[in-house]
Structure formats: structure tokens, C-alpha cells
Design goal:
By secondary structure, the chain is an alpha/beta fold. It is built from twelve helices and 15 strands. The strands form two sheets. Strands 7, 8, 9, 10, 11, 12, 13, 14 and 15 form a nine-stranded mixed sheet that branches. It has a six-stranded mixed sheet with strand order 2-3-1-4-5-6, with helices on both faces. α8 links the parallel β9 and β10. α2 packs across α11. The structure holds 4-hydroxy-3-methoxybenzoate. 4-hydroxy-3-methoxybenzoate binds next to α6.
């Protein structure tokens, strides 16, 4: 009967959360709390590490006051388990009376929590998860990361323009992988190419041997890959071990695979790999140079796209609180919508209609710069909206 009990508890918690929102529990006192839930342990721990470091950098640089209130950040570890994320979110809303929820390392964790945001009218800032549908799961969801459709279309165009005719796609078998597979194939087909085989690997379990054998047998011009942040190094190692880097099959991917967090581990096999994404630590702007320098001075590692979304997510919450004069709920949500600012990634806008980030998407190639590997941007698509929401 454990399930029944936990269901009743969950319903009671949601009712308590709704009651709290109606009373504006966050409005009492001169402190507002931000509840951040991240995978600090488990297979996606690198995402938690990056976002946590970026949040700390934001607070160190901008202080702990916003909208006339003292800001307190509470970070909780969900180890990448959706039931844990949802429980932690309930506790943060009901017990800590947080003004905003933030983090969310993987799509299932964000989707499990969205009903709590809706019930309690708590803005929920997605700093990592990237399945397009997440912003539709609750009117209180706002995203500072990206969507896979957004990151994928430009790469399909690049492939078609660069004599690639036959592609095999390989994605992780869940939300963002489905989006990447679908949007790549649709666009590449419009461009005159063919996706001859669509392969998938499970989210848990990094044995790529079976799918890599299929890629070799299919002999495409290129292999298009999406894997979530943290799996790129294991994949690239096996790609090289099986000699695929010397097989004439070109590797193209979303930037999640040649992640700045793992590029040094991946090593020279990454050289020449073309990807598309919204952030590279090598992005050439003053704002990014300052961000990367400060981040590296505070940490022993390079910021990746997760760090930037965490940093921008904090900026968005601070801007929202300034606009709402420290209030939460609908006033804070309204204060976040339509914000325009310069991120280390480039200019961004939070679309007031979709609550989705609009941003430049870059085509990049892995090159050695001053002895280190970087995703060097060579082409830009300006102000890309999530294509899944463009009617
Ligand atoms: C997701 C998408 C996660 C892209 C990722 O890394 C990523 C997700 C942890 O939506 O689950 O790179």
C-alpha cells in the first residue's frame, strides 16, 4: 500500500503548495529563497557541477540582493532521479517557501516537476533540459538552456551544403534524442538528403559497440549524433577504437557531444568534428572572455553550455525580482517574460509568448587553439526561435 500512501501525501503536498501560493508565502519577510535542484551525483553529475559553479559565480559577482530582498540559494541533489526531483521540489515549495525553482538536469526531471510549478504558481527556470515540449508542460516554466530542434536545423543545412547525401542518425532514446532525430531528418530531407537509418541508444548505459557496428555496415557519408552532456567522451573513444574515425564516415553532432567539459578528455579524435550549438567557451565576445576568465579563476575547469544557462538563469531570476519588486508568483513570471540581454553565448531574448529562449546558433569545428581543443564557431544563424513552436 506504499504507493497509495505516497499518492495521498503527494496530493496533500500539492494542496499545501497551492494554498501557499494563494497566500504568497514568499512575500513574508525580507529574504527570498531560490530552490535549485541538480544532479550533483550520478551519471549526469558534470551537469550539476557546471551549473552549481555558475550560480555561485553569478552570486559572487552580483551580490545576494535582488528586487530589494536578500536572496538565499538552496541547492539540492536529485542524483538524476525524477521521483527525487519532484519530492525535493515539493519540499522546497511547501517548507522553504521558495520564490522560484531552478536547475533540472534532464528532461524527465523537469517534466516530473512541472505540475508542482503549476499548482503552486512558482516560476520554474530550466537551466539544462532541452526537449522542446518542456515549456508546454506548465505556464510557469521558463527556459535559459536551448531546445534540440533549435540546435539541429542549422547542422542539417550545413551537411546538405557540404556534399553529404546519406546520413545515419544516432540519438539517446528519450525526449531530446527524439527531437534531434526528427528535426534533423525533416530538414535534411527538405535539403535533398536522405537519412538511411535511425539508431538509438538507451539513456543509461554507454556501450556504443552495437550501434557503431551498424553505422560501419551502412556506410553513410556522415553520422549525425545527439547524446546528453557527459556521454561524449565515452562515445568518441569507442568511435576511434573501432576505427570509424578513419573509415571516411564524417562525424557531425549537436554540441552536447563535443562538450567543453569533456573536450580535453576526448582528445585529438575530436579534431575536425562539425557541430551546431548555442555556446562555445571559445565564443568571441568581450562578455564571454570575462565570463570564461572569472569562471576558470574560481574553478579548475572550463565552463560549458550548462554553466552558461545556469548563469543566465540566475540573471533572469534577478531581473524578474527587480521587475516584481521582490514578489513571487505571477508577478515574478511576468518580470521574466520578454527579457533581452547579452549572455556570454551572445544576444538572447526570453520569448514572452512561449517562455522559450531565442538565441544565435553557431556552426563550429573542433580545432586546436593555443594547444587546447575548442569548438571554433565559423557560421551564425541569428535569433533562432524553437522551430517546434514556430507555426
Ligand atoms: C538533456 C538535453 C540533457 C541535452 C543534456 O545533458 C543535454 C535533456 C545532461 O533534456 O535531458 O546535453
Amino acid at each position: 500500500m506504499r504507493t497509495t500512501t505516497s499518492r495521498i501525501t503527494r496530493r496533500a503536498m500539492l494542496a499545501a503548495a497551492a494554498a501557499l501560493a494563494a497566500g504568497g508565502a514568499w512575500a513574508q519577510g525580507d529574504t527570498v529563497k531560490i530552490g535549485v535542484i541538480l544532479p550533483m551525483t550520478g551519471p549526469s553529475a558534470s551537469t550539476g557541477k557546471q551549473i552549481d559553479a555558475a550560480i555561485k559565480l553569478w552570486v559572487a559577482q552580483n551580490g545576494n540582493k535582488a528586487g530589494g530582498k536578500k536572496v538565499e540559494v538552496i541547492v539540492k541533489d536529485d542524483a538524476g532521479v525524477a521521483d527525487t526531483t519532484r519530492r525535493l521540489a515539493q519540499e522546497l515549495v511547501v517548507n522553504e517557501k521558495v520564490v522560484a525553482l531552478a536547475g533540472f538536469g534532464l528532461t524527465p526531471l523537469a517534466l516530473a516537476t512541472a505540475p508542482i510549478a503549476t499548482q503552486s504558481k512558482t516560476p520554474m527556470v530550466i537551466m539544462a533540459a532541452a526537449t522542446s515540449s518542456i515549456t508546454e508542460a506548465s505556464p510557469y516554466v521558463v527556459r535559459t538552456s536551448f531546445t534540440l530542434p533549435q540546435a539541429t536545423l542549422g547542422l542539417a543545412d550545413w551537411a546538405a551544403k557540404n556534399k553529404i547525401r546519406k546520413v545515419v542518425s544516432l540519438v539517446t532514446d528519450y525526449g531530446p534524442g527524439n527531437d534531434a532525430e526528427k528535426y534533423f531528418a525533416e530538414r535534411f530531407t527538405l535539403d535533398g538528403g536522405t537519412v538511411i537509418e535511425k539508431l538509438r541508444t538507451p539513456l543509461r548505459g554507454a556501450d556504443f559497440a552495437p550501434v557503431l557496428q551498424k553505422v560501419r555496415d551502412a556506410q553513410p557519408d556522415a553520422l549525425f549524433v545527439f547524446l546528453p552532456s557527459g556521454q561524449g567522451a565515452a562515445f568518441m573513444k569507442q568511435f576511434a577504437e573501432r576505427g570509424l574515425d578513419k573509415s571516411g564516415i564524417k562525424l557531425i553532432a549537436t554540441g552536447d557531444v563535443t562538450d567543453d567539459d569533456q573536450l580535453a578528455d576526448i582528445g585529438d579524435v575530436a579534431l575536425g568534428v562539425v557541430t551546431s550549438h548555442h555556446y562555445s567557451a571559445a565564443h568571441n565576445s568581450l562578455a564571454n572572455k570575462k565570463f570564461v576568465e572569472a569562471f576558470q579563476a574560481a574553478n579548475k575547469f572550463r565552463p560549458n553550455f550548462m554553466a552558461v544557462a545556469g548563469y543566465d538563469g540566475m540573471r533572469l531570476i534577478y531581473m524578474g525580482l527587480a521587475n516584481s519588486k521582490g514578489a513571487g508568483g505571477d508577478a515574478l513570471l511576468a518580470g521574466m517574460k520578454g527579457q533581452v540581454f547579452e549572455s556570454p553565448r551572445g544576444p538572447v531574448l526570453i520569448d514572452a509568448q512561449t517562455r522559450e529562449i531565442v538565441q544565435d546558433i553557431y556552426t563550429r569545428k573542433v580545432e586546436r587553439v593555443n594547444g587546447q581543443l575548442y569548438n571554433v564557431e565559423f557560421d551564425t544563424q541569428k535569433a533562432v526561435k524553437d522551430p517546434a513552436k514556430v507555426k
